Amino acid sequence: MVKDALLRRYHAVLGLFITGLVVSGLTAFPLLHELRLMAPWLGIKSHEAYQQHEGLSFWLGYVWHGLEVTQAQFPFVAYGTDWLAFGHLMIAVFFIGPWRDPVANAWVLKVGLLACAAIFPLALICGEVRGIPMVWRLVDCSFGLFGALPLLYCQKLVHQMSARSSCRS
């Protein structure tokens, strides 16, 4: 009975993590369309008018402008974000193993935690090189933090499930 409760909590938390990966992947495909939809909410009338704004509106307008220009002149560059999206979806597939057999596939949680930790140097170093504002790099780092929290909890639950099953043997 206790193992069932642990497994239900584990599935709920890991399912949330997998869903986050899938949503992140699916939303990486239509970046330009998403910015076109979001910009009016921030009062940005045109991608060319981004310089009239400050803060988040400036940054998102600037990104929107960059994507519009790139799409018009070099549409193949968007293929890189298609690969980003694909990568998120494929990483989500790897978590099916731990979903089905948490104890035998606990190593996948560790690899996931390593990936979450690696987000920090990637965002801070590559973001600096690419001219990404520090605030936005910290937002990117938050994905590592908020990704690690459910994986750490799942890892704790796996240890509890493993201990309970070894006590019965």
Commentary on this structure:
With 169 residues, the chain is mainly alpha-helical. The protein has one domain. Helix content is 79%, strand content 0%. The protein contains seven helices and no strands. The two termini are 16 Å apart. The model has no long low-confidence stretch (mean pLDDT 94).
Features of this protein?
169 residues, mainly alpha, 7 helices, 79% helix, 0% strand
Number of strands: 0
SS-based class: mainly alpha
Q: Encode the helix/strand succession as letters.
A: HHHHHHH
Spatial extent as radius of gyration? 20 Å
Count up the domains. Answer: 1
List the helices and strands and how they pair.
Elements: H1 2-28, H2 31-38, H3 55-73, H4 79-94, H5 96-100, H6 106-129, H7 134-168
Helix pairs in contact: 1-4, 1-7, 2-3, 6-7
Quick structural gist:
About 80% of the residues lie in helices and about 0% in strands. The chain is built from 7 helices and no strands.
